[in-house]
Design goal:
single chain; alpha/beta; 6-stranded parallel β-sheet; 21 strands; globular
Amino acid sequence: MDTKTARISPADIERQMGFCEKIAERLAAQPKEYLAFVDTYGCQQNEADSERIRGYLKSMGYGFTQDENAADVIVINTCAIREHAEDRVLGNVGALVHAKRRHPGQIICLCGCMAQEEHVAQKIRESYRHVDIVFGPHALWRFPELLYRVLTRRGRVFENADEPGSIAEGIPVVRQNGIKAWVSIMYGCNNFCTYCIVPYVRGRERSRLPGDVLAEVKELVEEGYKDITLLGQNVNSYGKDLGLDMDFADLLEQVNAIPGEFLIRFMTSHPRDASQKLFEVMGRCEKVAPVFHLPVQAGSDRVLKAMNRHYDRRGYLDKVKRLREQVPDIVLTSDIIVGFPGETTPEFEETLSLIEEVRYDALFTFIYSPREGTPGAKMPNPMPMTEKKANFQRLVDTQNAISAEKHAAYIGKTVRCLVDGVCEEEGYALTARTPGNRLVRVVEGDGALIGTFQEIEITGANTWSLWGRLAVNG
C-alpha cells in the first residue's frame, strides 16, 4: 500500500460543495423540511468527523433531528476499537429497518472505523440491506458525492478501499458546543500495537500543515470558544511527515501564543514519543491545561513487549517523574487493558503496583477485546474470563480509592474553572471543569455564567467528581 500522504486539492473540495448545492436545489424544490440525524460512537476524533458530516449536511439544506423516525438521512459514525461497541452498533443499525419501513425514502449511512473493516462492510452488504451507503474515514471528504449518487441513481454505495489516508482542508463544520471545540491536527497511526485496529482503519500518520491548524484555532478563539482540544491518534508524532523541522511541542507553543482567554488540551499521547521538550513547553505555557492522558496499557515489561508498545515500565515511570517536575499540579490519566493474551495474574499484579506507584487521577479501563485483523487476535488467550473479570474489579477498586483520595484533596481549595453547562442533577445549578478537566457540580449560579471562567470553592468530592460554590469574589 502506498503510504504517501495525499492532500486533497481545493478544487476537489469545491467539487464536493457543488454536489452540496445540487442536493440543496433538489430539497428546496420540495414542500417539506428535510432532516438529518448524525449518531456518533467512539472517540473524540469521531466526534470531530461528525462535525464535518454535519457541516456538509447543513450545506445540502438539511436541518437536524435526534429522532431517527423523523430523519430523511441517518448517518451512523462508528467505532471499531472494541467488540462490544461493534455489536452495539450492529444492533442499532438492525433496528433501523423498522424506521425505514415507515419511511421508505429514508437514506441510512454507516461510516467511520467499522465501515473501513472489510468483514463489517461485507456483513452490511449481505445482511443489512436497508443500509444505503457505507464509507470509511478515508472517503469522508467525498460524502456529498456519495449521497448524491444514492439520491439520483438509487442503489447502494460502498466506499471502503484500503488507502493510506489523506488530508482535506475546507470541509464545512457544524459544532455541537459553543464552548468546547475539537481540532484534529493529524490522522492515522504508525505504531501497530498488537491489540489495536486503528492503523488498519485510519491509515498512516499524516499531519495537517501548522498554518491550517493555527488558523482554525484562531477562528475558534475569535468565535468565543474557551476549551480547545488538539486531536490525533498520537499527537506526539505530529510533524514527523511534514519535513518542516516542527514537532508537537512547537505547535503547542504556537497555539499558546494566539491571543485570547482559552484553555488548550490535547489527546492522545503515546508514551514513546512524549518528550522532555513537550513537558517543558507545558510547564511554561499558561494556556496549556495541566492534564496529560498518557496510556500505559500494562505494568509488565513482557506484556508491553507483546503489545508492541516500544517502551518499558522503567522508561514510562521516568517520563511520569519528569513530567511532574515540569508541571507539579498535573492531572494524569491513562488507559489499562486487563487480560491481554498471555497475561498472567502475577503480571497483572505488576499493573496494580504501577497504578499504586503513579497514582493516576483517573483511568479508562478495559478487558481485552480481540479485533479481527490484528496480531493480538491470533495470540493464545488462556486466562478464563472469570479470572479476567476478577482482576478487572481489583483494578477498578484500586483506582477508585486513589481517585476518591485525590478528589478529597480539592476540598477547601478555590479553583478557577470553566463553567460549561446546566447541571441536570437535583440540588445543583451548573457544571464546570477544573483546568485538569475534573467535573464540578456547582450549587448555585445563573446560566449567564456558562462559557466564563469563575473562581469556585470546592466543598465536597467523591470518586468521580467534585462539587462546590461560586467563591465570594467569583
